């Protein structure tokens, strides 16, 4: 019965998304509409949609579960996020709008050289497709377990179906469609989060005051860690990691910036960033509070929890503990969270590959559109392949895996942009790809050796170390007084 309910919800949900795609794309399916929405997106619509894109299915499932391991210390990172959004609005957005960029990585071509430009775009493509695949993987796994496995449908078929549905409503108008579908999905996600919290409250037979008191009294309601410097949850590490994670995964990410660049003006884009950054903090607090309440409910009713943190919320929502209707709300929430992230990632990957790697902006309009459609299709296939690979090798919390991957693959991007923005030096362009590849390798070796000999384990702060190594590598490769672009 549960599988048929979920399948019906999926069908209705995607029917609505396809309707939105038809409405937004019926008058324009050009590359300009696909890449930048004709630069006519309302900033407040973009702001709401970016919440859903940032949270993803990983946040919906993993963040409540991580409370069991690290309490609410993830909020330290979230506080860092907020200051990162301010820096993006003040430093990066004015640059992007001044240069009228379609792809933000073309800045590197103007500032350093063609190989730097291609290197930056390549690191984004690698980072985004791995991160987006990891996010979608978690949700596809849940759909497989609770729906398609009951009909003996293989996992790879579930993956193909999921990717096909995303491709179906994005291939015509891209970002012009995404800003509206993501807004719907963000609203669904937050609404479902509130409903699930309310259901947990009712299951514990609490009023609002009692729920707040339960949160405050829980040993897991610990936000700050100042004592143990070796801990990856130490405030300094988490806070500054949050700032730099935001800068690279939002400000240096074509996916997130593409939405901002579709706004009508710089002022509108900055309004969007401030609003989105402000709203992101309480939404994450609600996810962590849900985790605390689930652990309290389990203790109250002697409910055995699953071994994996990522399985805690799905277990409560599919087992009938919170009532049978919660399955509907959980399904809507998880699908909204997952596909609001996947659709924009697919669009951004297509944009970056077409503009940065293939240079379609130099092609005749009809040929450029054919190139974009073919690229969108091929990246969808690659997306599915990477999800299958991720399933085969992943053995840790998905959200942790994504941020650790980001610390290695986004680090060179951080170093490139910081060097370009805050120095006037010009490194030899031909050396830049080697510097950017060597930096993550040095970080990996450093992490291993430091842990072996000192016991200190790097966390997300490795992103800053990686960026610094890239920065000083570029500095060392610079030639004074003149630019050499090989």
Short description:
This protein is 76% helix and 1% strand. The chain is mainly α.
Structural overview:
The protein is mainly α and 486 residues long. It has a single domain, classed as Up-down Bundle (Sodium/glucose cotransporter). Helices cover 76% and strands 1% of the residues. It is built from 19 helices and 2 strands. The protein has a two-stranded antiparallel sheet. α6 crosses α15 (365-393), α6 (114-146) runs antiparallel to α16 (398-409) and α8 runs antiparallel to α14 (326-358). The chain is globular and about 70 Å long. The mean pLDDT is 84.
What's the CATH class, please? Mainly Alpha
Shape: globular
Q: What is the average per-residue confidence, as pLDDT, rounded to a whole number?
A: 84
Total count of strands? 2
Unreliable runs: none
Question: CATH superfamily name?
Answer: Sodium/glucose cotransporter
Work out the helicity level: over 70%
Query: End-to-end span in angstroms?
Result: 64 Å
Strand content: under 5%
> Which architecture name does CATH use?
Up-down Bundle
Structural class: mainly alpha
Cα-atom Rg, whole angstroms?
22 Å
Tally the helices.
19
User: Which fold name is given in CATH as the topology?
Assistant: Sodium/glucose cotransporter
Largest sheet: 2 strands, antiparallel
Largest sheet, spatial ordering of strands: 1-2
Fold topology:
Elements: H1 2-25, H2 31-36, H3 43-70, H4 74-99, H5 106-111, H6 114-146, H7 155-170, H8 175-203, H9 208-217, H10 235-251, H11 254-261, H12 266-301, H13 312-318, H14 326-358, H15 365-393, H16 398-409, H17 411-422, E1 426-427, H18 432-454, H19 462-476, E2 478-479
Antiparallel strand pairs: 1-2
Helix pairs in contact: 1-7, 1-8, 1-14, 3-6, 3-8, 3-12, 3-14, 4-10, 4-12, 6-7, 6-14, 6-15, 6-16, 7-14, 7-15, 8-12, 8-14, 11-14, 14-15, 16-19, 17-19, 18-19
InterPro entries: Na/Glc_symporter_sf, Na/solute_symporter, Sodium:Solute_Symporter_SSF
Membrane topology: Multi-pass membrane protein
Pfam families: SSF (PF00474)
